[in-house]
Input
Amino acid sequence: MIELPNGLHGAYRRCDLIAAFGRHAIRTAVRQGQLVTFHRQVLLRREVTTQLRTRAAAALLLAGERAVLTRHTAARMYGCTAADFAPIDILVPYARRIERAPGVVVHNGTFTEDDIAEIDGLRLLAPEQVLADLLCRARRPTALACADQMLAGLPAAQRPGFRDAVLRAISARADIRGTRQARVMFDLATGLPESPFESQLLLMFYDRELPVPTPQHSITTIDGRELYRLDFAWPEFRIAVEYDGYAAHAERHDQDRRRDEDLAARGWIVIHATIDDLMAPSRLVSAVREALQARRLTA
Output
């Protein structure tokens, strides 16, 4: 086996390895499984072939120096777990043509150096450009979840400036398709939902023409000490929806029951939601509507 350099996150141009070790040694490394072919021009270290940064690096090596990561791949690099893991999205200038590779989607567009950032040696579009593109082009649940995750990753003081930058990027798009949807989705984003599923629940409430709830509403004592934090609430009606993710709640059934009883004693209606309600929301929507109607009649 040859002693490989680090490469770019375990990705290498084949020609660089051949220049360093010779064609026979590289063929042997591929045959023995030390290296894996990503494309005839790009090889990967076997043990890191499934890692995002390795596959992203391989796509950039294939596309050349004017390429950048974009869309879902760039969003993943910025910490958006709601974005798609595959394929790798890269953006190149309109005049640039590259060979196709499995698992790589090539987008053509216009961008400047001011639109580019770098993470761990990988070039990618700036976060406001990435989010503007997802809000216009991605599935709405994914776009909203990514917007929430990007906002959540920023200090509160930086969020207004980031919002302005995203809205400017949306307005500056040459292709106006999806821009109206993008503004609506971004208006719903707060950075408060604690998971992509909670972002999707918020969108579901909006789509069913329910009043938009407050995410992560705090219930406090008279002296300001927090007792509970509710996933979603309509505080004026004392109605809450709690998302019961399995990992978060499987070991907390008794604790949740006691909390629900205490909230009920304080005048709250607590409705529980699961991932099944995202697939078939009629039960949850009906429960929320009935609770709202009951509270409006007694107000």
